Amino acid sequence: MDLVSRVKNILIDPVNEWRVIDGEPGDGGTLLKGYVAVLAAIGPVPLAVTINLNINFLRKPGRCDLTAEARLLKLGKRLATGEVTLRCEGEKEAVAHVTATYSIPPDQREPSMVT
């Protein structure tokens, strides 16, 4: 599945799309290549809205496997913000940097998840 379709499905039908994702093979790094870590952190939250998504393409990667390093910057009651850095496997220099912020509707998360 391509990135646009995956993100569209997560935003339009998150409950079903997360079930599809759960059934896919791959480790955490592979899974994070296609979409931002924030969605993984908040799980299937209906009506979560992207309020900012910024992708900086830093350089063209050669033919390589991409790895993703994801970091959750803040997970609050109403906003979740994270970043992902993409690199060619084994290289230090990033090929892209992504930041994203999502608005989380009230009463959609379990209290233990809120910091």
Task: Provide a short characterization of the protein structure.
The protein has 115 residues and is of the alpha+beta class.
Q: Helix and strand layout, with pairings?
A:
Elements: H1 3-12, H2 14-22, H3 28-32, H4 37-42, E1 49-57, E2 66-75, E3 79-88, E4 94-103
Antiparallel strand pairs: 1-4, 2-3, 3-4
Helix pairs in contact: 1-2
Describe this protein's structure:
The chain is an alpha+beta fold and 115 residues long. It has one domain (3-113): Thiol Ester Dehydrase, Chain A, CATH 3.10.129. The protein has helices spanning 3-12, 14-22, 28-32, 37-42; strands at residues 49-57, 66-75, 79-88, 94-103. It has a 4-stranded antiparallel beta sheet with strand order 1-4-3-2. It is globular and about 45 Å long. The N and C termini lie far apart (33 Å). Residues 30-34 have low confidence and may be disordered.
CATH fold description: Thiol Ester Dehydrase, Chain A
Gross geometry: globular
- The helix-strand sequence is HHHHEEEE
Estimated structural class: alpha+beta
Distance separating the two termini: 33 Å
Helix content: 25-40%
Q: How are strands sequenced across the largest beta sheet?
A: 1-4-3-2
Oligomeric assembly: single chain
CATH architecture: Roll
Number of helices, where a helix is a run of at least 4 consecutive DSSP H or I residues: 4
Low-confidence stretches: 30-34
What percent strand? Answer: 25-35%
Mind telling me the C-alpha Rg? Answer: 14 Å
Number of strands: 4
CATH class call: Alpha Beta
Whole-number mean pLDDT: 75
Number of domains: 1
Largest sheet features? 4 strands, antiparallel
